[in-house]
Amino acid sequence: MKLLLLSLQSNASLVGIKYIATNVQAHGHDVRILLAPGYLEEILASGIEGFIKEFQPDLIGISLMSIEFYPAKNITRLIKDKFDIPVVWGGLHVILKPDECIQYVDYVCSGEGENAVLALLEYLGNSHRDSIADIPNIWVNHKGVISEKPAQPEFDLDTLPIIEYLPDNFYVYKDNRIMNFADNPKLFRSLALYGGTCHMMVTTRGCPFYCGYCANAYTMKVFGKKIRKRSVANCIEELKLVRKDPYVIYINFEDDWFFSHDKEWMREFSAEYKKYINLPFMVRVFPGVLDREKLDLLRDAGLSLVIMGVQSGSDRVNFEIYNRKVKFASVEKAAEVISESGVAPYYEMITDNPYETEEDQMECISAMSRLKRPYTISLAHLTFFPGTTLTEKAIKDGIADPEAYLSRYMVKIDDTYFNKLLYLTPYIPRALINYLNRKQIDRTGIHNFLIAFLSFTVKRTIEPVVFFYVIARGLKFNIKWTVRTVTGNWKSAVAKVLFNFLGKGDMEFDQQLEVARKKMPELFEK
Ligand code: B12
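Above: the input record for the complex with cobalamin. Below: its predicted structure, written as tokens.
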């Protein structure tokens, strides 16, 4: 049987789809992955049409996060116009909204896809398409009649085959041509995140927290609270394979809770990693449970950067609005530990929260200004993902547009006085932060001018320097690693500096949607 997996993501760094592809392939089927970055055209490009005609898949699978909902809806109808091939959707957005997604497609996968897609493909090989598939996780839309299916029981992650960094069945649609990435590695590197120097990997699945804004708070209702973990041997096997690609110089562990591994695991992992892999890497940490001993073990193995979600510097916002039970005192303690270990810190903040008062915002700024420097910071809009407790509340209160999460992400993040000041906190003197940190009613023209001026200049001068210093320090000032990281990432680094200079954010996706809204209004109707 043949399976075509389609991703509409803007970059070539895929994880979930690779797992599905590798598992289905390991069972003897022919699989291709096609990346059509942000495809949102009115017609099916002849290149894509030709590729499907030539491959003749028995099933087409489309992967989508919420941001890809309209592109997925569009390409599904274009494929359906030309081909009589069953289509299945899966991915985070489908897990959140299976009931809505199933309206546009034959099947949706409301949970993990590895076993579900395999079962569906084999079912299509054995049964008549008119019969109704009875497969865990797979909802069916049979001529408009919907059959729901409860989530599949969990499986042991070590039973999955190992995924590759650049599999040879990975294709891309570009300039009306389909190209194989393995045959065009330069093209792959131009579309992969960090210039194709970084392998993204997950060693656990699950998150024990129910933060009110996070999509995980909903997915954990589906998958259960238990965190599933891969063995050290299984992770090292993947890394050894990845290590063969000379361009990969950095490993990015995308686990929501990497620190759920116990000390024994960390000890064994660090020893093996140092021995066989020996590349710098990054992990995500949660402030309340950061363990110094584990951090030191990882640091010794090559840990160079940690991403820590802070979200807000106000305990009221974290506890009462985000249901995130972490006091800022724990953040301060964790920041201290991170700073002492010499690992580069990157703190993530959520802004533009309509429930936040000016007092909360001021508390947030002064709390963040107390953190040990140097550190770097990223801001993201509060996004009202469907199914989360915060979204339900915001919709009830008439505050959130239930559709906004489909399009609003990074754009115009530094529009407000508060966001600008928050972004500046790691870089300007604390006395200046205190002077600028005040309510709107107490601000004068001087405050507004200073914020605009500092925001413009700091982004173009101090920020890149601090960023570079923090990264080099995280890499223990190892010249070889620093040079390799910088040269490997020079395109993203230059793009960041350039975008900072031009004062541009990640606008492309929103603009594309606007154009599509004008050209294809019917696509945006319910
Ligand atoms: C790694 C990661 C990325 C990577 C790679 C994503 C990828 N496509 O593989 C990168 C860095 C590219 C990324 C980017 C973004 N991400 Co991200 N990312 C993650 C993260 C941390 C882990 C995902 C992962 O690898 N999980 C492990 C794999 C095995 O699971 P999976 O991807 O869900 O895939 C399984 C199922 O979903 C299903 N499945 C997936 N595809 C398909 C397809 C078919 C046909 C079927 C049947 C099943 C199926 O089967 C898979 C295997 O079991 C999650 C957090 C999380 N815990 O999920 C956020 C997360 C998915 N990201 C999120 C967001 C918001 C983004 C961005 C929009 C951020 C931004 N502001 O730019 C961008 C969007 C990029 C784009 N579309 O252009 C949100 C999504 C929320 C939502 N409602 O969509 C999450 C949930 C984070 C969060 N807690 O809010 N991300």
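Notes for the reader.
The mean pLDDT is 90.
DSSP finds 22 helices and 17 strands in the chain.
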